[in-house]
Specification:
By secondary structure, the protein is α+β, with helices and mostly antiparallel strands. The protein contains 21 helices and 20 strands. Strands 2, 6, 7, 8, 9, 10, 11, 12, 13, 14, 15 and 17 form a twelve-stranded mixed beta sheet that branches. The protein has a three-stranded antiparallel beta sheet with strand order 3-4-5, covered by helices on one side. The protein starts with a strand and ends with a helix. The relative contact order is 0.08. The structure holds adenosine-5'-diphosphate and magnesium ion (MG).
Length: 789
């Protein structure tokens, strides 16, 4: 049993460009704990001038200041917990703090850089690495991803759903069995056999999480997300199974309702969040109190889910995320206060072991049989029934093994059954009689090679020598034949490898469609997503998106939007990086192939050397040939060297592969986000337009400024300067959450005065399309103009 208090860490988020730092200091020296001191000027708004400052001091296991990087956070906070989980204990890491303080960044990671990946992907990588190294046990790993929003649970890993709202995901409910164990109905446990599969699942969940979020329900800040890694292990043949789970929890924002200043629907949400965080706090207070028998886990879904993983039987760790700019100082203080209460709880983690019932039955059956046998022997009650044919055969086998065993200490164990014991004696007696009377057949079978020399007969020796010579010749012929066949096979394999290892394996598994960005619709067909050969349901959501269904006007507006979107730089950067990594991995793959064939060649040389020496030994036997061969030794050393470099390169290759995978997933996510942002923006534009149709000068015309026409023409020559009509989209807007518009007939005239009129089509949907686009473009231009000034 491991006993210790919950570890509580603090992480300070780097200040934004326009943020002003509050006054704080970090002191690392004090008796292993770090302390954080926050100074707040006395509230001047109260009406009296008071220059006295107030300071608050909080202790943490360690405080990670603004510049702390993700790898350091993982090494110090998550790695020790992951180690415990691998050893069979439960673990929980939860991030607590106000919205925007870096909880998601810490738990999942940033969406831009590979180096920004957070605790979840790093932990997965670490756990699978460790499992691979340990061959003494059989491990099984599963993951689950639960989102709790307004006291309802949703399964983020549901592969069938193409959710566009949170409510589309399967609802998870809590069930309690008669032993008061909690079961989560409808939460899928997906098996992940390697890091790649687990990462795909994480991204599937994250994408579901992102898609389900709308501006009205900023679910990520108002819901709790629990990513759980379940590990079970068993030693081969053992009946004991160890199960452990690691919860990585991204809690809802801890900000107070008063501050958010919301009402209506949002207030209900805020109440729920605060309520569930309040219940979490209550559970934590109860856990911290000694002799408290009732812990109010049942009050909220989250505390019920984490019931066996918060304090008590678990290694629990909390990360308090702090946004230390002036405006957020009071929230940071309340986060620290909560952390101090959490730090009082003691954990008593115990190993989660249970017995595999099937193996247990086998063991118990054997034990029962042994006991029965023993009982009969002791009570003197002999069994009179005949031994079955099967039992006799088993005994014969046992006797044979016993006789063949050279170990003088070996025993013949047939249990306490007198019938069996008697049978063994009789059988042995028969064998002995047989061996003395017959032509020593049995003995000669067991005579070892060294005893050969004891055969004195010269005639026999000559015969044997002849036979040996004959066999040697046969062997030589066979070896030559084998060599030829092997070479053929190797050549074929090498050719296959050369064409497949680099191109197929790499390009298939890492396929990146870097050039796939010309056509606007292909931007979201996300070919890469289909190319992944992984067995995991890979982001099925991506293909759900509009695909080719966007109208032309909408597509063009999207192109403009994309160009101006802040994330486009990230996508470009990542693309460049991906290209670079892809080239690197390709080059490495080629090198690996070279080394592999070099090793094969060296092995071939050794075989040749063997054959030569064997042939030489047959034609002119001499002592030397049996001795150490320096040439062979040198070849072996060369092979070892090559193997070493192969291993190093292979590890790098594997690392690059993971990085490429990760980058691709990040890019997919950013692209999805961009499209979502666009959809939201587009629908808002359309709505604004309907509300404020002031730009329309007559029922059928719209006023557009000349510089704007120019940019429109520059932007597109076919859809605005010529007459084109695209059939309206059949898919009703809103049905799949993607807004679609038809492309209208539209003619531009050469501007004659300061403003130009564009005739509208009369089709309200089409007109909305034109107007929305025009306004969108105008806004972007205005914004740009402002920025340039
Ligand atoms: P939360 O989940 O607490 O609401 P986020 O993790 O979404 O907050 O963080 C808000 C923003 O701040 C994100 O854009 C994130 O990338 C950025 N951020 C948070 N922590 C860090 C950090 N330690 N370093 C760099 N950027 C950070
Ligand atoms: Mg978040």
């Amino acid at each position: 049993m491991v006993k210790e208090t919950i570890r509580v860490y603090a992480r300070v988020k780097p200040l934004g460009r326009r943020q002003q730092a509050g006054s704080y200091s970090v002191d690392d020296e004090e008796d292993l704990l770090s302390s954080l001191e926050i100074t707040v000027p006395r509230d001047l708004a109260d009406g009296f001038v008071n220059n006295k400052r107030e300071t608050y001091k909080f202790k943490f296991q360690k405080i990670f200041d603004q510049e702390a990087k993700q790898d350091v956070i993982f090494d110090s906070i998550a790695k020790p917990v992951a180690e415990c989980v691998l050893a069979g204990y439960n673990g929980t890491i939860f991030a607590y703090g106000q919205t925007g303080s870096g909880k998601t960044f810490t738990i999942t990671g940033g969406a831009e850089r590979y180096s920004d990946r957070g605790i979840i992907p790093r932990t997965l990588s670490y756990i699978f690495d460790q499992l691979q190294k340990d061959s003494s046990k059989v491990y099984t790993t599963h993951v689950s991803y639960l989102e709790i929003y307004n006291e309802c649970g949703y399964d983020l890993l549901d592969p069938r759903h193409e959710a566009s709202r949170l409510e589309d995901l399967p609802k998870v409910t809590i069930m309690e069995d008669s032993d008061q164990n909690i079961h989560l109905k409808n939460l899928s446990l997906q098996q992940a056999t390697n890091e790649e599969e687990a990462l795909n699942l994480l991204f599937l969940g994250d994408t579901n999480r992102m898609i389900a979020e709308t501006p009205m329900n900023q679910a990520s800040s108002r819901s709790h997300c629990i990513f759980t890694i379940h590990v079970s292990s068993k030693e081969p043949g053992s009946a004991t199974i160890r199960r452990s789970k690691l919860h990585l929890v991204d809690l809802a924002g801890s900000e107070r309702v008063a501050k958010t200043g919301v009402g209506g629907h949002l207030l209900t949400e805020a109440k729920y969040i605060n309520l569930s965080l309040h219940y979490l706090e209550q559970v934590i207070i109860a856990l911290a109190e000694k002799n408290r028998s009732h812990i109010p886990y049942r009050n909220s879904m989250m505390t019920s889910v984490l019931r066996d993983s918060l304090g008590g039987n678990c290694m629990t760790t909390m990360i308090a995320t702090l946004s230390i700019d002036k405006r957020n100082i009071d929230e940071s203080i309340s986060t620290c206060r909560f952390a101090q209460r959490v730090a009082l709880i003691k954990n008593e983690a115990v190993l989660n072991e249970e017995i595999d019932p099937r193996l247990m039955i086998v063991q118990l059956k054997k034990e029962i049989q042994d006991l029965k046998d023993e009982l009969e022997l002791v009570t003197g009650k002999q069994r009179t029934s005949e031994l079955s044919q099967e039992e006799l055969l088993q005994l014969d086998e046992l006797i044979e093994t016993f006789l063949k065993d050279n170990d003088p200490d070996s025993t013949l164990d047939v249990g306490a059954d007198m019938r069996k014991i008697k049978y063994c004696f009789i059988h042995m007696k028969q064998l002995m009689n047989h061996s003395t009377t017959s032509d020593k057949k049995l003995l000669s079978q067991n005579i070892s090679e060294e005893e050969d020399t004891n055969i004195e007969s010269g005639e026999e020796l000559e015969k044997l020598k002849d036979l040996l010579q004959q066999r040697d010749n046969e062997i030589n012929i066979l070896v030559n034949m084998l060599k030829k066949e092997k070479k053929k096979a190797q050549d074929a394999l090498f050719q296959l490898n050369a064409s497949s290892t680099c191109s197929t394996v790499l390009e298939q598994s890492l396929s990146i469609n870097l050039e796939d960005r010309q056509s606007p619709s292909s931007c979201f067909s996300l070919k890469g997503a289909k190319d992944f050969s992984s067995s995991v349901h890979r982001l099925p959501l991506l293909s759900r998106q509009t695909g080719g269904k966007m109208s032309l006007g909408c597509q063009e507006a999207f192109e403009v939007f994309k160009r101006d979107h802040a994330d486009s730089i990230t996508i470009e950067d990542n693309k460049q990086l991906l290209k670079q990594r892809f080239a690197e991995v390709k080059c490495l793959g080629e090198k690996l192939n070279e080394v592999r064939s070099k090793i094969n060649r060296l092995k071939g040389e050794i075989t040749q050397r063997h054959i030569q020496r064997a042939a030489l030994a047959v034609s002119s036997p001499s002592e030397e040939l049996n001795m150490f061969d320096p040439v062979e030794e040198k070849l072996r050393m060369q092979i070892e060297e090559e193997k070493k470099s192969y291993k190093t390169m292979f590890n790098r290759f594997k690392g690059l592969k993971v990085e490429i995978e990760h980058l691709q997933l990040l890019m997919e996510k950013v692209k999805m986000k961009m499209q979502k942002d666009f959809e939201v923006w587009w629908s808002e534009e359309a709505k604004n337009l309907q509300e404020k149709p002031e730009m329309v000068t007559s029922p059928n015309t719209v006023t557009v400024y000349p510089q704007f026409i120019k940019s429109l023409q520059h932007l597109s020559t076919n859809s605005f300067s010529e007459t084109t009509r695209v059939s309206p989209n059949e898919d009703p807007a809103g049905k799949n959450n993607s807004i679609t518009f038809s492309n209208p007939t539209l003619k531009t005239r050469t501007p004659q005065s300061s403003s130009t009129s564009i005739p509208l089509t009369g089709d309200s949907q089409a007109d909305a399309d034109i107007l929305a686009f025009i306004r969108a473009r105008q806004r972007i231009l205005q914004k740009k103009g402002l920025e340039n000034k």
